[in-house]
Design goal:
The complex is a heterodimer. By secondary structure, chain A is mainly β. Helix content of chain A is 0%, strand content 51%. Chain A has strands at residues 4-7, 10-13, 19-25, 30-31, 36-37, 39-44, 51-55, 59-60, 68-73, 76-81, 90-96, 103-104, 108-112. The mean pLDDT of chain A is 97. Chain B has no helices and 11 strands. In chain B, a hairpin with a 5-residue loop joins strand 9 (94-101) and strand 10. Classes of the chains: A mainly beta, B mainly beta.
Chain lengths: 113, 120
């Protein structure tokens, strides 16, 4: 199985500041035939299911604010929130869909400093 | 717009069978979509359990760790799919989600989640 490891586990950030969450996979999730990274990011607020934010490592889902951006390739990825808003307080997860079993990172809890 | 509505009991006794259903609106269980079950617990985090999909015939993929205990079945007459997990233990206590997988693999639509507690 591909192991996904996120850092940090918890991230306090001031409103209006940038937040950066990292995700590392135990093997590359870059598919050479189409040059796409099989990596998604989700946001989960308390009591709700995860919400898709980003797929193909850097493509924003429709309706996701442009302060959310994804980057990286191969085994190292980053989710950046450009200017933290109060509604961004949540747990963020990365997920690889390169191969089943699909696996998720352990989550990063984003909080207001 | 796709909507997934989950139903099923929130309490299951140890050694019994956990059964959940996910009713689909806005899509067909027999379409090109892929239908997943995922669970979440404090100890295991988000854990992919398995999926079902139709490509001229029905296919299933299951997590190896659960393969002897899990069944995911489509129900075309009711446009839904189900999860059965046999011989449950307290370690199977979790919030269970159904989800539609995109053509490429990310989970784009999720059910509301069902907390299932395994306890006598």
């Amino acid at each position: 199985d591909i192991v996904m490891t996120q850092s940090p586990d918890s991230l306090p950030v001031s409103l209006g500041e940038r937040a950066t969450i990292n995700c590392k996979s135990s093997q590359s999730v870059l598919y050479s035939s189409n040059n796409k990274n099989y990596l998604a990011w989700y946001q989960q607020r308390p009591g709700q299911p995860p919400r898709l934010l980003i797929y193909w490592a850097s493509t924003r889902e429709s309706g996701v604010p442009d302060r959310f951006s994804g980057s990286g390739s191969g085994t190292d990825f980053t989710l950046t929130i450009g200017s933290l808003q109060a509604e961004d307080v949540a747990v963020y997860y990365c997920q690889q869909y390169y191969a089943t079993p699909y696996t998720f990172g352990q989550g990063t809890e984003l909080e207001i400093k | 717009q796709v909507h997934l509505q989950q139903s099923g009991p929130g309490l299951v006794k140890p050694s019994q069978t956990l059964s959940l259903t996910c009713a689909i609106s806005g899509d067909s269980v027999s379409s090109n979509s892929v239908w997943n079950w995922i669970r979440q617990s404090p100890s295991r985090g988000l854990e992919w359990l398995g999926r079902t999909y139709y490509r001229s015939k029905w296919y299933n993929d299951y997590a190896v760790s659960l393969k002897s205990r899990i069944t995911i079945n489509p129900d075309t007459s009711k446009n839904q799919f189900s999860l059965q997990l046999n011989s449950v233990t307290p370690e199977d206590t979790a919030v269970y989600y159904c989800a539609r997988e995109s053509a490429s693999g990310w989970a784009e639509y999720w059910g509301q989640g069902t907390l299932v507690t395994v306890s006598s």
